[in-house]
Structures are given as structure tokens and as C-alpha cells.
Amino acid sequence: MFLSDDDMLLAQIAQRDQQAFAIFYNKFKDRIYTYAIKLCHEASDAEDIVHTVFLNIWLRKEDEPIQHLDSYIKAATINTCLKFIRSRKFEQNAQNVLKDSFVEEHNDLEDAFNLAESSITLKKAIALLPPQQKLVYQLCKEDGMKYSQVAEQLKISPLTVKTHMQHALRFLRGYLLKHGDIITALTLGSIVR
Length: 193
Description:
Low-confidence stretches: 99-110
Mean pLDDT: 76
CATH topology of the largest domain: Rna Polymerase Sigma Factor, Chain: A
Helix content: over 70%
Strand content: under 5%
Structural class: mainly alpha
Shape: globular
Order of helices and strands: HHHHHHHHH
Largest sheet: none
CATH architecture of the largest domain: Orthogonal Bundle
């Protein structure tokens, strides 16, 4: 049986080969982004969808082979977009009802170690952000403020806050990918909401 380069990359990814994943990511990110932007019409949402699709590919089990890669990518992107849209609507409804956030606890020691390691890399990346992006990122992520609250506090427009966050997230994702922390880079978009 002949295996294509993509099949070999997928097999390596199933074995948690980060270098194969980085090659696969660079090869298909633009195609997935194009599908996502057509469906959701927002650049930041499309970027989140791209990262979610890749995260799902990374987390895919070894015994779940992908037969037709192009069809799989398109279907995965469409399904992720639909889930994203449903999630947004649910989140908006939930925010009207709930004011407290819930923190999921992880008792697994390995998860704690990986989280600590990722946190150190992320802190290094945050320290490299331009001052205004760093401040906006910290207010949104660490203080849990909404864009409108940050805008009011800093006396800038909510659109400027959103732009700073997009630039900060793009830089942080790139830094984390460059330093081998692929999973944190992919989940970074969902951490900040």
C-alpha cells in the first residue's frame, strides 16, 4: 500500500511528532482559514476555528485514520464553524444568566507539570509584547475584563482593544509555535474570551 506524504505526516502526528505537526499545520492552515472565513466572516473567529481544527487533528486517536484528507479538512472546518456559532449563541445566553465563571480543576500531576511549563513559556512571550498590547492582554486575560471595560479604563475604543488582542494573540501563538509549545499555541484563542 502506497502512503502519500500527507498520510505519513498524519501517522507521525498520531505518534505525537511535533515537527510533523508543524509541517502539516503550515501546509493546510491557509486552506482551513479560507473555508472558515467563508462561513463565519470574522477574521478572529476564523483564526480560532483554524486552531480548533488543528487541535482536534492533534488530539485524534491513532486508530481513527483519515481516509480522504481534503474532504476531512473541509468537513471538520464546517463542523467546527457550526459548533463555534452554536457555542457563541449559547455563551451569549449563558452570560445573561450566569455572572460567575467556573474553574475546572485538574488533579493529574502530568497535566499540572505541562501547564506549569506552558505557563513559563507563555509568560516569556507576554513579556516581549509591546507595552500597550501587553497591558490589554493582561487586563483581558488575567483580570478577566471584557473589551468594553478595558476600552473604558484605557480611554480607547473597543475596536482598538480588539485589534491589540488580535495582534497580541498572533504574536503569542507564533512565539509558542516557534518554541515548541504547539498545544498552548492552538488553545490560546479559546483561553481569552
